[in-house]
Amino acid sequence: MLVVAALRWSDQRATVDPLTGEVRTDPRTSGASAADRVALEHALRIAEAFDGRCLAVTVGPREADEVLREALAVGAHEVIRVEALAETITEDGSETARLLLDGLPDRPDVVVCGDHSADRGTGSTPAFLAQRLGACQALGLVELTVAGEELRGVRRLDGGRRERLVFGPPAVCSVEPADLGLRRASLPATIAARRAEIPVARPGSLRYLRAGGTRAYSPRPRALPVPREAAPHQRLLALTGALVERTPPQLVRPATPEEAARELLDYLRRHGYAE
Amino acid sequence: MTYAGPDSRSTVVGESTRTFDVVVVGAGPAGSAAALEVARVGHSVALVERGPFPGSKNVYGGVVYGRILDELVPRWWERMPVQRWVTRRSTMVMTPTQALTLDFRTQDWGKPPYNGATAHRADLDSWLAELAVEAGAVLIPSTVATGLLRDTSGAVVGVRTDRPDGDLTAGVVIACDGVNSFLAKEAGMYPVGGESAHLTLGVKQTLALPRQTIEERFGVTGRDGVDIEILGCTRGIPGGGFLYTNLDSVSIGVVLGLEGVRDGGTRPEELVADLKRHPAIAPLIKGGEQIEYSAHLIPEGGYHAMPELVGDGMLVAGDAAAMCLAAGIWLEGVNFALGAGMYAGRAAAAALAAGDVSRRGLSGYRKLLEDSFVLADHRRLRQLPGLVLSDRVQRNYPGFVCDLVQGLFQVDNPLPKPGLRKLLLRSAKDNGVRLRELARDAWTGMRGLR
Amino acid sequence: MNRVLAVLVVRDGVLPLGADETIAEAGGAALLVGTGADKAATELPSLSAGWLADNGTFAPGRWARQLAAVLRDTERVLLPASADGRDLAPRLAAELRRPLLAGAIRVNETGAEVARWGGRVCVDLVADGPFVATLQPGVRGPAPAEAQTLTGISLPEADARDVTVVEVLDPEPGTVDLAEAPRIFGAGAGLGGPEAVELLGEVAAALGASLGATRVVTDAGWTGYQRQIGTTGVVVHPELYVAFGISGAAQHLGGLGSPGHVVSVNTDPSCPMTAMADLGIVADAPAVLAELARLLEVR
Ligand SMILES: Cc1cc2nc3c(=O)[nH]c(=O)nc-3n(C[C@H](O)[C@H](O)[C@H](O)COP(=O)(O)OP(=O)(O)OC[C@H]3O[C@@H](n4cnc5c(N)ncnc54)[C@H](O)[C@@H]3O)c2cc1C
Ligand SMILES: Cc1cc2nc3c(=O)[nH]c(=O)nc-3n(C[C@H](O)[C@H](O)[C@H](O)COP(=O)(O)OP(=O)(O)OC[C@H]3O[C@@H](n4cnc5c(N)ncnc54)[C@H](O)[C@@H]3O)c2cc1C
Ligand SMILES: Nc1ncnc2c1ncn2[C@@H]1O[C@H](COP(=O)(O)O)[C@@H](O)[C@H]1O
């Protein structure tokens, strides 16, 4: 049984220039996301439960070795880095998945991923992995456990609903950083991992999507439905909301917290949010 | 697995094999310099750091005087991650509405071997630690030293960390864990009590500004930069202010005596806000967006406040040994930390080579320090922190000199210009300055710098 | 079917987040697949041409194969970037051998403008041919259609490995997805610590509201990261937002929609959160909260 933890190396504290959209990253603050760290913990537990091997893999540049050292320190049996440039803006999850699988020595039985990465953030990589492996997918899990020969998960749906899933290998899971934390590495294992050689696979290179300009995010104007009023004047009023009644903003400086709390409750009552 | 919890302090251990020849705690400038020196001569050394990477907890930028690196890194100025080289140094004395600046500029400091440089600590500390790692040190990040390991005779033989199976045994432990050193206290090297009198609080904000704006406002070009030290901006609380230029940000902040902060009831942020609003400062930083805020303790007691530096199996260096010069218009700590760390590393290596890591075997450390700037400067300047932080310098002199200069340059026609003597007396009287004390302080100051 | 089409996963007549907007972005045409599609179609003002396929429970592996068979000639396939859409879209793109432009803010003829780095950066991706895209919920708004035509279709059979769904759980009151909560009490750094955040959650619950938080609060671990509202957290559209000790940073407000009623409790009268509030209360947030809990007899 081979359980793979897919860890993406990216800057968890990148800054973005609000004018140009230029992303500034720093290898020192780069590493696995909270979700990926939880994925690693699950992979270790699943491997333990199935008496299998846990392999941690990352598709990334040399600096990404750091996340694999951390994986070794917490008990991954092997690690492998699949050589690739970090071109996070125009990279495609299907390409990551292709390269990742090409770089593995064996076909994995279970792959555990984070639910989305910090940079690309699409959560699509695990689905592409499942497609290529012909495996079932269980994505966006908030719980993942082993029960006998099976895996059980709870997946988050829209609107706060959740679904309970049962599945067996081959499977690809992605987990939210909920429930668990990554175990802490012992000191001897940490020291050993700092000195370890990290194996590298070079199965090919990533292809990127063609891209136009990059810029800082600014919200898209929200389309307003065309007003149905007949007269142009009425339509104008409807669009601008000029005659809609509005309460002017109010700033209060209550003398005591109690007075403040009462102000707040009064406001909620006035607007029908409390009896 | 045994978990060494944070509660475990000194632990007595039996005979055991050494995991490393030397364990350095804290990957600040002192720790990295120590590890580098030890690794260089072929001893094994671990560099234990609490933060996820060196400098992660020490995020403020400041001015670093790099000349001590001559001994550690050839042509260091080509490799050190520098923001700007300080070619302009101003000392400013202010009252809420006045400011008098002594402004000095030299292009000599803008070329090798340089003088001061502004640098971000995350960059600087990472670079220094990387030098140690390249030389063979093992950096162990995200790991806190929680206590000392001792043998039955009481000698230090390692540290305990917060990781499972977290004991690290070593021939020598070098404590470089920064101000208020937990390890040095643990080893009983600090005198008990009275610590806060020797501590100052540094509060700093980093404000982003376009590179070109900085160059226009501060009158510098290329990689040249400015260092402004300020007296009289702390509402009488002993301390001072500073303003440094980085490449595309400025660092502004105050350094305050801890007792003054406690008694004064003023929040340090308010003083920084005051300083930012001051008419002499506001135009320089206008439009700067705050990108970082940090506060940290600084040991400023100088020579008198230092702990014992050498114990059986243990050395203390840098801020951990209170080797920081923080007295109003001086703020130097990194250079002292680098120097002390380097000498600690050397002394440890020599002791290991000689097979004697006892207090005696390690005593070369103190000698190296005495013979170098580290202790020489501190000894020479030992009166200065007291003077600069005295009530008179803090509360009375800034107003006095500002009034004096204002009187000299103010044209009150049709009144005739007042004579210097009259001005002197009036400014002194208005600001509660006794000329006799002034003369005595001037003498102390001059003697202190002799 | 049309050259541009939205594909929506319907579960027991319940539509995914961002359904109507995705249809609007696709020009009004959509394929509704799942269970209860006919019921769902009545809740889509932007839908002009709808195809309905009853297809049983959601199974992304199998569905992707089935859908690919009928979507070969559809040049642009759009799904909302909600839970099921994000699950299905990559499989569909792979089956159709097309690029996936995931997390789009805007979709155009040749590609899409997608958000990266937690919604802080935008980039125009060019597809050079047919593609599949997912659209972020909440970015555009509806485009009501004049009339609606609906056509029932059935999808060809296919086989793929999928998980077994044991049951669907209703939302726990405490974890109702923030994105849909009509009333939210927001916890900011000004609350000072985890105990106050917990109390705010209880006070909110007493008033039928959900707990949200700023990144400072979730990063500090005072509450779960799921509660983070903002450009890198959940995008919400509440009617009522009551902010406790929140400064109102752009990244936070960016995810707040435009609530009808905003209250801000903050010691700083000029912070952006208070500036945009209908009622600004200049006071100590933890103290006001404690009083509120007392008045509401929470605890
Ligand atoms: C606001 C401010 C401005 C300053 N400006 C300047 C300036 O402009 N120029 C200048 O030269 N100096 C300046 N200083 C002083 C300077 O920062 C210090 O003197 C210098 O950092 C001392 O270096 P160090 O290596 O001894 O300690 P530190 O830099 O404090 O490093 C100690 C390291 O030990 C780690 N550590 C602590 N405890 C443990 C533990 N138990 N286990 C593991 N690791 C641990 C810490 O994380 C840290 O990395 C300033 C200080 C402040 C606060
Ligand atoms: C790339 C990036 C993405 C981000 N994404 C998000 C995001 O998605 N969501 C998000 O929320 N943030 C996000 N942030 C962080 C954001 O910039 C702000 O730092 C954050 O929203 C501020 O949270 P806050 O208001 O709780 O804290 P602060 O900004 O520290 O404000 C605290 C407020 O509490 C007030 N206060 C203090 N004490 C009291 C008291 N006793 N009583 C009452 N009021 C008091 C203060 O006046 C202040 O207004 C992001 C930041 C970056 C850089
Ligand atoms: N370059 C990569 N190397 C390893 N795993 C990856 C990589 N990119 C993405 N993943 C995995 O896929 C998950 C989702 O990423 P994304 O599709 O980029 O949102 C991540 O949390 C990782 O577990």
TrEMBL record, chain A:
It comes from the Bacteria. SUPFAM superfamilies: Adenine nucleotide alpha hydrolases-like. Coiled coil: none annotated. Residues 20-210 form the Electron transfer flavoprotein alpha/beta-subunit N-terminal domain. PANTHER family: ELECTRON TRANSFER FLAVOPROTEIN BETA-SUBUNIT (PTHR21294). Heterodimer of an alpha and a beta subunit. This is Electron transfer flavoprotein alpha/beta-subunit N-terminal domain-containing protein.
From TrEMBL, chain B:
Residues 391-449 form the FixC-like C-terminal domain. It comes from the Bacteria. Its cofactor is FAD. Keywords: FAD, Flavoprotein, Oxidoreductase. InterPro entries: FAD/NAD-bd_sf, FixC-like, FixC-like_C. It holds the Pfam family FAD_oxidored. Belongs to the ETF-QO/FixC family. PANTHER family: ELECTRON TRANSFER FLAVOPROTEIN-QUINONE OXIDOREDUCTASE YDIS-RELATED. This is FAD-dependent oxidoreductase. It comes from Amycolatopsis dongchuanensis.
Automatic annotation (TrEMBL), chain C:
The electron transfer flavoprotein serves as a specific electron acceptor for other dehydrogenases. It transfers the electrons to the main respiratory chain via ETF-ubiquinone oxidoreductase (ETF dehydrogenase). InterPro entries: DHS-like_NAD/FAD-binding_dom, ETF_a/b_N, ETF_a/FixB, ETF_asu_C, Rossmann-like_a/b/a_fold. It comes from Amycolatopsis dongchuanensis. Heterodimer of an alpha and a beta subunit. Residues 4-168 form the Electron transfer flavoprotein alpha/beta-subunit N-terminal domain. This is Electron transfer flavoprotein alpha/beta-subunit N-terminal domain-containing protein. Gene3D superfamilies: HUPs, TPP-binding domain. SMART domains: ETF (SM00893). NCBIfam families: mft_etfA (NF038209). Its cofactor is FAD. Belongs to the ETF alpha-subunit/FixB family. SUPFAM superfamilies: Adenine nucleotide alpha hydrolases-like, DHS-like NAD/FAD-binding domain.
